[in-house]
Design goal:
Structural class: mainly alpha
Number of strands: 0
Order of helices and strands: HHHHHH
Helix content: over 70%
Shape: globular
Largest sheet: none
Radius of gyration: 16 Å
């Protein structure tokens, strides 16, 4: 009986992963859809905190999160692995500082998502400058998807961060 449950869970994760990758392709076509960088930053943060608390090994969900961030970098023409660098800077420098200094716990997922996008854009600007390429300009069109994603992050991670 347990074996069938594990197979169903693996199938569910596989289908959900496929849906996320298809969604990410759609975000390159429809600009009003959120890129989900901040959402997956929050999810990866939750997974790492869960791993620290339980001392279990990181599983498929962690590696899927990294693969999704890499795919998002490729799809949206950011530098390769820039979201990984941004996440590790976020996790080791900003996340605990934000959790310790902001007393309104309900707003922490929103601040996580905004800081995730800030780090990704700043990292992309730095790498563009180093490679002597044109710097991407942040348009106002990014504001609506980031606000939608902040709302999603608030709903899904309200009590978990």
């Amino acid at each position: 009986m347990r074996r069938a449950g594990a197979k169903n869970l693996s199938l569910a994760y596989g289908l959900l992963g496929l849906c996320f990758f298809i969604y990410e392709i759609l975000t390159s076509v429809f600009s009003f859809l959120p890129l989900l960088y901040g959402f997956f930053f929050c999810y990866a943060f939750v997974l790492l905190k869960e791993q620290e608390r339980t001392l279990l090994r990181l599983d498929f969900r962690w590696f899927f999160t990294l693969a999704f961030l890499l795919f998002a970098d490729i799809t949206h023409d950011f530098f390769l692995f820039s979201s990984w660098f941004a996440f590790f800077i976020f996790y080791y420098v900003l996340a605990d500082w934000i959790r310790g200094n902001f007393k309104i716990a309900r707003s922490i997922p929103i601040i996580f998502i905004l800081s995730a996008y800030g780090l990704i854009f700043v990292g992309d600007w730095v790498l563009s400058y180093v490679n002597n390429q044109n710097v991407k300009i942040i348009h106002l069109s990014y504001a609506l998807p980031i606000c939608i994603e902040a709302l999603l992050g608030y709903v899904f991670f309200k009590g978990r961060i």
